[in-house]
User: What shape does this take?
Amino acid sequence: MSLHRIALTVNGENEQVDVPSQMTLMQMLRDKLALTGTKNGCNAGECGACTVLLNGEPVNSCMVLAVECAGAEVLTVEGLSRDGVLDPVQQAIIDHGGVQCGFCTPGILISSRALLDRQPDPSEDEIRQALVGNLCRCTGYLRIVDAVKDAASRQRAMAD
Ligand code: FES
Ligand code: FES
Assistant: This one.
């Protein structure tokens, strides 16, 4: 099995990783970098539990080869907080009780962060659309949607 050495940025840190040709970004994050917040739900591009930001765009990391990420910037759930302060979407989902089993939560948080980065004042439809690829079997989404709305207003207040 041939290994490829790739350099990339993960959560702001420069990393060099030796990856087999067929290794996915999800496997690399979990198995090579011990970033196990990125979850393996289906390994088939259907559940969104493995969502990360790749150059600022949300992707299912189980559907991206690690070798394709040479030179890329990746953000995982572990990179959302800054200096011990939770991202507004993290704090809001806690405050609104939007976490039950928690398996979907990292992907939900990353998709929500991507939404708020491009649309700081999203409508409910825009929030639901942004989360359409993130399956949650527990919450019914209501509390998650409320949390994202609240995170957006907290973020706008912080920006004022
Ligand atoms: S684990 Fe990647 S979409 Fe389900
Ligand atoms: S909280 Fe359990 S799948 Fe979403």
